[in-house]
Amino acid sequence: MTQLGIVIPCYNEEAVFKDTLAQLSELMHDLINRKAIAQNSFLLFVNDGSSDTTWDLIEAACANDPLCRGIKLARNVGHQNALLAGLHHVKDQCDAAISIDADLQDDINVIVEMIRKYEEGCEIVYGVRSERKTDTFFKRFTAQSFYKFTRFMGVKLIYNHADYRLMGKRALQELAKYDERNLFLRGLTSLIGFKSDCVYYARKERMAGESKYPLKKMISFAFDGITSFSVKPITFVLFLGLFIVVCSCFAFIYILASYFFGWTIPGWSSIMLSIWFLGGVQLLSIGLIGEYIGKIYVEVKRRPRYAIEKLVGEHDDANIS
Ligand code: UDP
Ligand code: MG
Known about the structure:
Pfam families: Glycos_transf_2
Structural class: alpha/beta
Keywords: Glycosyltransferase, Membrane, Transferase, Transmembrane, Transmembrane helix
Strand content: 15-25%
Bound molecules: uridine-5'-diphosphate, magnesium ion
Protein name: Glycosyltransferase
Helix content: 40-55%
Membrane topology: Multi-pass membrane protein
Order of helices and strands: EHEHEHEHEHEHHEHHHE
GO cellular component, one term: plasma membrane
Strand order of the largest sheet: 7-5-6-4-1-2-3-8
């Protein structure tokens, strides 16, 4: 029987925590009673430096329910790092781990199907949104453009899959070998390989509280997703540069011809246009290259991605790693 660990990153989630805990623990008890998962399965809440009462709620939950475990990170490190901290922690403590957001926008009823697929031999099972009706038009449009653009850039992503997925022990151990600081987990899991499958569900609205991904964070996350997995943007800039050089060769011939044949051209507009256009292209190129250099800078420092301050609940291995 599969020993399941559900990893839930929580950042200022006091508004939804009680409901989330009630729903997940009911599901876990039900699955244990039906012998669908092993008795020592657990819920692991990762507190990502919340400034509200989330950690107190996690501690209380761990004191009341032996199914619950908690990790308190020393500070806010962002969703991806918090999730990674949880997945690293459970990699030797369960057969399979499911990651899910604390607001339960993702349908927990497909967990049974995820486990079934895992038991049939899939090492990774992706939760995929079959529709995005609850998202605003803007979010739907930007998300779809993002998936199309990343595919165009050569990044393999599962369409409409966020971070709701099951990973078996082997996949978790492989994930732990990836040592990068610019984390984009959904891109990494596609790189790991192994047999995988998808389960489909309709995404719900957030139960309460606010999204922790405002537009600014969403854009930088999308940008990270592309620049951490593809160097194609730099290649495009190179070709853009080449194209402009070729164009300017033709322009040079035209300018020489007009000089020799005495064609008079007003000049001003063409000069202004080329200054602005080339200035723009140069800035864009330098900025883009700078972005990659910035990433290298972050990677070479090899700073730890998270620090665990405290563990609560029954952890199989109480070592703080
Ligand atoms: N989260 C986190 N650290 C952060 C921001 C978010 O651990 O710095 C968690 C948050 O508590 C939630 C998940 O990441 O469990 C996804 O956040 P949210 O639901 O706000 O994102 P959205 O669904 O709006 O994209
Ligand atoms: Mg959410």
